[in-house]
Each structure stands twice: as structure tokens, then as C-alpha cells.
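Design job #97: recover the sequence.
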């Protein structure tokens, strides 16, 4: 289908609406298409304005955006602004769909590395430390940082709309080293989180005589590698996820295993 030039109708207020609606991106999250419903809902009002006299093309655009997408929420308005610019410019919807598919992954990688694995964990650690000392600045500071991340959605929607794919290429080039360093930091933080928040311990003990016992956990496993069970359990779940095991099946399996092992006094 040939591109058809259209009159520019998207305004800053439309892009602000896109930024606000992006907060609801995961409100209808599902494991088949991830964020597709929230993503399409955020694009809907602007697409209706673009295609108000072309219901067939509007239907095609909405249907295309209901396909699988999973990207970083803070950077989402950038992608939505970019796609709206292409739709408004008369680009073929099939081409726009292919661009969306090729971009949401890199944006997820950049956003997760910079926000979830770097900025927010570091600020959470600092603010939690302040809060544990009774300093009211702890929660206030974390809220401010989180609110600033929210406000970034508004300029990102406009940047995506105005600058197109060239901005993404430049952003990826300039943040490559930062992303790599952030990924290393993120892995380190996750390793600490596994040891801190995944709690597994063997309960059985071995009677060695003279009223003395040896704990399989503290006297055996912890002497070899501390937190070995949480480490092994986490990577077992990761392995199963890589093998495409259904997440719901894993959750139910973990609950059943926990009940059975606890009942028999193993964990």
C-alpha cells in the first residue's frame, strides 16, 4: 500500500494525553500479548483524530497495535509519539507495525537498564537507609525521584513525535556504554536481592549421638555455599521460563511444592 500524505492534526495536548495514558499501559496486562491492550488504549484517542474520516484504516491501525508488545513504561511515550508521527504522515500501517516490533525491544533494554536496574534500586537503597533511621526525607526523596521519572513521559512523547527514528539511533549510540555498565550493576543488585528476599532452608537434622544433631542447612549447606538453595531455586525458575513453561503453571507448582515440602518438614 502506497503512503498517503495527511494533514498534521496531532497537537501538544494530544501528546500530553498519550503521556498520561501511558501510565495505564499495564492495567490490562496479560501473558499472551503483554501490554498490547493498554498500549492501544493510549494510542486510541490520537489515532481516532488522525483517521476520523477513514474508519477502515483506523480499524487496521488499532488491530495492529493489539499485537504483542512488552517495553519499558517510562520510555513508552517516545515509541507512541514516534508511531503517531508515522501514522499521521500517511505511512503504510504495515510499515509502522514493523517499526514498532523492531523498536520496543531495544527501548525495553535501555529503559530497564537505566531505571529498574540502576536509578531506582540505588535510590531505594539510599531512601530505605534514611527511613530506617527515622529520617522523613527517605520516602519524600524516593517519591520525588519516581515523580520526575513520571514527568519524563511528557517530553519523551514530543521527542518521539518530532524527531523520529534518528533520535533512537542517537540515543542507543550514546547510551551503549552506560547500558553495559548498568547491566553489570543490575546483575550485581539482583544477586544481592536473591540472597535477601528468596528464603529457603532445609529443616531436617541428623542425630550424631550424645544428644547432638547436625543441621543439613546451617552445618552442611551453608558451610559449602551460603544461600545455595535460594540461588539454585532462582536459576531453576529462570531455566523453566527460558523453556517457555507457562508462568501460571510455575506459580501453582511453587505453591503446591511449598505446601507439600512444609507438611513433611523438609522446608
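Job complete. Output follows.
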Amino acid at each position: 500500500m502506497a503512503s498517503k500524505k495527511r494533514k498534521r492534526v496531532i497537537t501538544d495536548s494530544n501528546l500530553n494525553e498519550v503521556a498520561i495514558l501511558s501510565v495505564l499501559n499495564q492495567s490490562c496486562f496479560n501473558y499472551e500479548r503483554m501490554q498490547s491492550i493498554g498500549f492501544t488504549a493510549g494510542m486510541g484517542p490520537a489515532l481516532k483524530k488522525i483517521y476520523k474520516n477513514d474508519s477502515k484504516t483506523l480499524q487496521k491501525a488499532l488491530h495492529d497495535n493489539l499485537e504483542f508488545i512488552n517495553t519499558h513504561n517510562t520510555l513508552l511515550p517516545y515509541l507512541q509519539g514516534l508511531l503517531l508521527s508515522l501514522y499521521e504522515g500517511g505511512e503504510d500501517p504495515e510499515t509502522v507495525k514493523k517499526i514498532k516490533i523492531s523498536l520496543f525491544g531495544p527501548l525495553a533494554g535501555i529503559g530497564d537498564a537505566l531505571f529498574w536496574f540502576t536509578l531506582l534500586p540505588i535510590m531505594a537503597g539510599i531512601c530505605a537507609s534514611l527511613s530506617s533511621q527515622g529520617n522523613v526525607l527517605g520516602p519524600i526523596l524516593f517519591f520525588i525521584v519516581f515523580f520526575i521519572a513520571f514527568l519524563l513521559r511528557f517530553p519523551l512523547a514530543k521527542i518521539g513525535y518530532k524527531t523520529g527514528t534518528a533520535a533512537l539511533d542517537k540515543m542507543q549510540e550514546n547510551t551503549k556504554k552506560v547500558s553495559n555498565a548498568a547491566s553489570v550493576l543490575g546483575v550485581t543488585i539482583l544477586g544481592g536481592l536473591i540472597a535477601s528476599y528468596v528464603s529457603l532452608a532445609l529443616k531436617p537434622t541428623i542425630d550424631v549421638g550424645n544428644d547432638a544433631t547436625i543441621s543439613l542447612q546451617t552445618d552442611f549447606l551453608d558451610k559449602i555455599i551460603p544461600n545455595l538453595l535460594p540461588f539454585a531455586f532462582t536459576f531453576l525458575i529462570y531455566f523453566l521460563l527460558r523453556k517457555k513453561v507457562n508462568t501460571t503453571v510455575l506459580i501453582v507448582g511453587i505453591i503446591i511444592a511449598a505446601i507439600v515440602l512444609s507438611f513433611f518438614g523438609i522446608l
